[in-house]
Amino acid sequence: MIKNIIKKRRVIHGIISAIVIGAVMYLNVGIGSILIFGMVTSVIFGKVFCRWMCPLGFVMESMLGTNKDTKNIQMYNYHKMGCPIAWVSGVMNRFSLFKIKKDTTKCIDCGICDSNCYIATLNNKYSLYNEKKGNSSTQYSCSKCLVCVGECPTGSLKYTLKK
Predict the structure, then answer these.
(1) pLDDT of the chain along its 163 residues, tens only?
(2) Other C-beta atoms within 10 Å of 129: how many?
(3) Is 84 helix (H, G, I), strand (E, B) or coil?
(4) Rounded distance, CA 82 to CA 78, Å?
(5) Domains held by the chain: number
(6) Cross-strand pairs, 158
(7) Which residues touch 43 (CB under 8 Å, ≥6 apart)?
């Protein structure tokens, strides 16, 4: 089920972005309320707002595409530098209730997760499967797009409550 949700992330992102814009424009929901909502979701889920809910993130991703072009990925990350939700939720990646967990008994060290992770692609100090490197899913820049989870051929990566 989670793999189907991940495959539809762009559609989900677009729908939630439209709801956020509608709430601000037609229901007079203040930007402060959106900031608080984004920060609360980060405590629970980590930095999901940018890649799953943010209207600006949706526009940037639509303009730049979702391919692995390093210049586009860096530009996508650059626009988040002025966003207070991105600041707080990036820090919360380390402490949030939901984490990307690896089942070491299922992992075959194929590296497919890293080749689909923009954090590991931009900086080889991070990895999802190589435990000698830093965990890319707990880094500030990880926006929990969950492509790594969706592409794992053995299902060893899960997005789940930490235990």
Answers:
(1) 788 999 999 999 999 999 999 999 999 999 889 889 988 999 999 999 988 999 988 888 888 765 555 555 656 665 666 788 888 888 888 889 999 999 999 999 999 999 988 888 888 899 999 989 999 998 888 889 899 999 999 999 999 997 6
(2) 23
(3) helix
(4) 8
(5) 1
(6) 101
(7) 92, 95, 96, 97
Please provide the DSSP assignment of 7-54 as one string: HTHHHHHHHHHHHHHHHHHHS---HHHHHHHHHHHHHHHSS-HHHHT-
Closest to 90 in 3D by CA, of 27, 52, 134, 138: 138
Q: What are phi and psi of 135, to 5 degrees?
A: -75, 115
One-letter amino acid at 93 equals N
* 49, 42 Cβ separation under 8 angstroms: yes
Q: Which pair of tokens denotes residue 115?
A: 């080749």
Q: CB of 153 within 8 A of CB of 110?
A: yes
* Residue carrying the six token digits 């794992």: 152
Give the pLDDT of residue 129. 92
Range of the domain at 122: 2-161
d(CA 37, CA 155): 31
